[in-house]
Predict the structure.
Amino acid sequence: MSNASIKELAKKYVLNTYGDRDLALVRGEGCYIYDADGNRYLDFLGGLGVNCLGHGHPRIVEAICRQASTLLHCSNLYYIEPQVRTARILVDNTFADKAFFCNSGAEANEGVIKLIRKYAKEKVDPRRTDIIVFENSFHGRTLATVTATGQPKYHKGFEPLVQGFKHVPFNDLAAVEKAIDDRTAGILVEAVQGEGGINVAQEGFLPGLRKLADQHSLLLALDEVHTGCGRTGSFMGYQTFGVEPDAISLAKSLGGGVPIGAFLTKDSIGEVLGPGTHAATFGGNPFVTAVSEAVLTTILEEDLPGNARRMGQYFAEEMLKLRGRFDFIKGVRGKGLILGLELGVDSDAIAHAAIRQGLLTYCIAKRVLRFHPPLIIQRCHVDEAVAILARVLGQAA
Ligand SMILES: Cc1ncc(COP(=O)(O)O)c(C=O)c1O
């Protein structure tokens, strides 16, 4: 089928929540992806930060084939070997003692929200139900996580929203302190707001949140759906920012392309979620956790966080060099391989032009081009991306 015929069928049969798109992507290889008409693209979106090992990585393919012919699914009524192996990797390499597996980022955040509420009720004060969240944040599309999301456009039409969330400005410790009252149970925050425009937590902000959480007996949870598993230059984003949270949510790179989410926490906190309190039919099934095990092992063995740090720095520097030629470039923001090129002009048309020239990117917050390529990219990929950007910006100037 061609791009056009797939588009026609999608318009006829699939609910139009994602709007109009030009391409149908049908095949991937390494850092490249191909559309249905055979055109090749350098994939600097990585499936929105999911394809951390690129496309068709041999260790993912091997894990999929092995597990597909061994056991796909069996339910959590039974112990699951790949699940416990994956949990061990996560625990051995983070602050956490335990993992809970689910299917997506939103579901991981739902779990964290439930954990914060139940912990406060049982261990601190039963009146504490509220969670402090941030303007421009993004936590998912379920009713609780969309309420937590600090972008009113995502709330519209779905009211009444879930009770118990308080939005405060990002990077504003004084506002957080002011918002804390005797109903506050915890804080949920992204170290880098991806969907909100690649806004990075300023120095001192996360340590300040840790201090406030400790002073007021609140749980501090980091939404690491996007920043987790190598992307910011450490195994987990909190390690890049030097702050130990009480819980983190994961998804995206955790599965390298298979749908999996998780949250991690300490025993002293996670014990409030005892038998029967939380569950997911597909959560941590043999198939997805076997793939996740292969992905995490590769990330650690090949030091992909280190590569993300080096390539992220090189990419940011190369993009900043373009400022000499295009004065409408305002700057580059991000950490590791979650980067945004901030333009002083509307970037939507520029993103589309880049795609037509063979570079997958996406415009957010109207004026930012967003990049979260596979963690395996090399300098040659960065050079190719920057050459395309230079061409596209030259045409836009
Ligand atoms: C920081 C963050 N949290 C949560 C989510 C929601 O994840 P999912 O779409 O897998 O539910 C996203 C998705 O973009 C995200 O970037």
Remarks:
- The pocket of pyridoxal-5'-phosphate is lined by residues 48, 104-106, 109, 138-140, 190, 194-195, 223, 225-226, 251 (CB under 6 Å).
- The longest strand covers residues 329-335.
- The chain has two domains: 3-56+303-396, 71-301.
- Residues 72 and 286 are 6 Å apart (CA to CA).
